[in-house]
Amino acid sequence: MIAVVQDAINCIEKYRFATGRRGRRLFGEVAQWIGAKDTDWPYSFESICHVLGLDANAVRHRLGVAQEQRSALLPRRMHAAGQDSSLSETRGESLCH
User: Fold this and answer.
1) Burial of 28 (0-12, 13-18, 19+ CB in 10 A)
2) Which pLDDT tens digit goes with each residue over 29-52?
């Protein structure tokens, strides 16, 4: 589970200021995963943080993807359109290669 969180952190850091389509998409997917309050799925950000004893909101804030920070960081097109992430298609795979 630590590897899942580490991969997300790597993606956030690597693609935070991406200008390419792929980088912006990956950043948006990871930011959406981190921002989701879902606890039903064992590999949701909330569930993983709970198992690891981390405060999910504090981690979000530290990464700069807290709810109040996300709208400024997400690609305008995705945020404005309210598009859902395709993260569900990549479950079980590393997002940042």
Assistant:
1) buried
2) 999 999 999 999 999 999 999 999
Three-state DSSP state, 20: coil
Q: State how far the Cα of 94 lies from the Cα of 73, in Å rounded to an integer.
A: 21
Return the H-helix or E-strand segment holding 36: none
Residues 5, 20: Cα–Cα separation, whole Å: 23
3-state secondary structure 47-93: HHHHHHCCCHHHHHHHHCCCHHHHHHHCCHHHHHHCCCCCHHHHCCC
Is this prediction's pTM over 0.85? no
Q: Is 2 exposed, middle or buried (0-12, 13-18, 19+ CB in 10 A)?
A: exposed
Task: Record the tokens describing residue 2, joined without a space.
Answer: 């630590």
Q: Are 26 and 11 in contact (CB under 8 A)?
A: yes
